[in-house]
Design goal:
The structure is a single chain. The strands form two sheets. Strands 5, 6, 7, 8, 9, 10, 11, 12, 13 and 14 form a ten-stranded antiparallel β-sheet that branches. Strands 2-1-3-4 form a four-stranded parallel β-sheet. It folds into two domains: 39-163, 3-Layer(aba) Sandwich (Rossmann fold), CATH 3.40.50.10330; 171-342, Tumour Suppressor Smad4 (Sandwich). Helix content is 33%, strand content 31%. It is globular. By secondary structure, the protein is an alpha+beta fold. The longest helix has 32 residues, at 5-36. Helix 2 links the parallel strand 1 (52-56) and strand 2 (84-87). InterPro entries: ATP-NAD_kinase_N, Diacylglycerol_kinase_cat_dom, Lipid_Phosphate_FormReg, NAD/diacylglycerol_kinase_sf, YegS/DAGK_C.
């Protein structure tokens, strides 16, 4: 006896409906498990639910009250107490707030802002063993991107910050001097520090444009500054010989990926105990074409040099624009950088 085509059609429709229902149930179940948490597994040493501290940028994060309520609700679903809320100020971008959070016994300190906020929090968390979580809300968010943490997705990044895997990474320390004879100012970086073209672009990009189109604003600003003269520098990598170059930019990195997934330093890892260095020396406007080609294809070219080191010292013939983790930091004529291996614990997807 054969089955009519109408019966087959009915069977196929029923099977399709059942498959959709099963898929929806699985998605809903996974979402409930993701945010329900199990309090018994996250109790701290005192038998209480743990508590995070959130160091939030006073300007970059919009609608603080709504974000705070959202974080409190999500924390509760994961078995955590409502977090301590600490806002940055113009005088203190996060260092003092982080030290207070550690002294008060926070189980994790969460940087809620851009790479500048992250850097300030990390400086005070270094060598404490207290993990840092990331709620990336800036323009670049390069550390988060390199660690696989989704920018501007609060629920996902908070889940990682509270329940993710601990990963210990390096920190870069840098000394920048305005002139060859002036005392240096000491800073830290987690992503990249540099002199020259990249820092100039970051310093001259209009904040209004960044707010409108995000990191693409850097591309717009960079296009107008491709023309420029090279600067003579002397450079010493570790204990090697002093070398001379004429450069447009030098970048010292702890991680290698830029916005858009571009690998400026393909071999850079945040926990390998090394700094990766790129020296860019194009001559004129057309000299940038092989630079872009070398970066995109990851091939060597005479205008793009790569180094790996634990320390590097650079002296320029004139002051150059400087940047730390994408934040302009004035000008400098001297840059000295060193790596501090495995100094910081960060929560990453796990």
């Amino acid at each position: 006896m054969s089955i009519s085509s109408d019966v087959w059609n009915i069977v196929l429709v029923v099977a399709l409906v059942l498959a959709v229902v099963v898929l929806l149930v699985l998605v809903a179940t996974r979402r409930r498990l993701l945010f329900r948490g199990r309090t018994s597994e996250v109790l701290d040493d005192t038998g209480e639910a743990p508590q995070a501290a959130v160091v939030v940028h006073g300007v970059k994060v919009d609608d603080h009250d709504a974000r705070r309520r959202q974080i409190e609700v999500l924390s509760g679903r994961l078995g955590w107490r409502a977090p301590v809320w600490l806002e940055t100020t113009a005088q203190d971008p996060g260092r003092g707030q982080t030290r207070k959070a550690v002294a008060d016994g926070a189980s994790v300190v969460i940087a809620f802002g851009g790479d500048g906020t992250t850097r300030a929090v990390a400086e005070s968390l270094a060598r404490t063993g207290v993990p840092m979580g990331l709620l990336p809300a800036g323009t670049g968010n390069l550390l988060a991107r390199n660690l696989g943490i989704p920018p501007n997705r609060l629920e996902s990044s908070l889940h990682i910050a509270l329940t993710g895997r601990n990963r210990t990474i390096d920190i870069g320390h840098v000394e920048l001097a305005d002139t060859l004879d002036s005392p240096p100012r000491k800073e830290s970086f987690l992503v990249m520090s540099g002199l020259g073209f990249d820092a100039e672009v970051m310093a001259t990009t209009a904040p209004e444009l960044k707010k409108k189109i995000g990191w693409v604003a850097y591309v717009v600003a960079g296009a107008s500054r491709l023309r420029g003269r090279r600067t003579p520098v002397t450079m010493q990598v570790d204990d090697g010989p002093v070398q001379q170059r004429k450069i447009r930019a030098v970048v010292v990195g702890n991680v290698g990926m830029l916005q858009g997934g571009i690998q400026l330093m393909p071999g850079a890892l945040p926990d390998d105990g090394w700094l990766d260095v790129v020296v860019v020396s194009p001559r004129g406007m057309t000299g940038w074409l092989p630079v872009v080609g070398a970066i995109l294809t990851r091939r060597d070219h005479t205008t793009v040099e790569h180094f790996r080191c634990r320390t590097i010292e650079i002296h320029a013939d004139r002051p150059m624009f400087a940047q730390l983790d994408g934040d302009p930091t004035g000008t400098a004529q001297t840059l000295k950088a060193r790596v501090d291996p495995l100094a910081l614990v960060v929560r990453v997807p796990g």
